[in-house]
Write a structure and sequence with these properties.
mainly beta; seven-stranded mixed sheet; 53% strand
């Protein structure tokens, strides 16, 4: 199983970024995918999740209305569109999949929101 995030960077408050997570090594279309984030000195938190076919999504209250999770099962990729970014969105963002009793994580991509 391999998860590779990309798309992070430095953005000004109010800006946008689109994160991608390319998956391999498992049947991507069969599993829920999640995005988490971890800010410096804080616990990792769930940001958004999407069902295997993309018909159901979940968002943390802190990102509702600003972030959109989506997936392309043909490309084995899950996305996180982040709009109206705030300094408090600064964190390392990770994608995660649970296969059976095991969780698999990507290496993370840094998002920094600062003027």
């Amino acid at each position: 199983v391999q998860l590779v995030e990309s798309g992070g960077g430095l953005v000004q408050p109010g800006g946008s970024l689109r994160l991608s997570c390319a998956a391999s090594g498992f049947t991507f279309s069969s599993y829920v995918m999640n995005w988490y984030r971890q800010a410096a000195g804080k616990k990792r938190e769930l940001v958004a999740g999407i069902s295997s076919y993309g018909d159901a999504t979940y968002y943390a209250d802190s990102v509702k209305g600003r972030f959109t999770i989506s997936r392309d099962n043909d490309k084995n990729t899950v996305y996180l569109q982040m709009n109206s970014l705030k300094p408090e969105d600064t964190a390392v963002y990770y994608c995660k999949v649970r296969l059976g009793w095991s969780d698999y994580w990507g290496q993370g991509t840094q998002v920094t929101v600062s003027s």
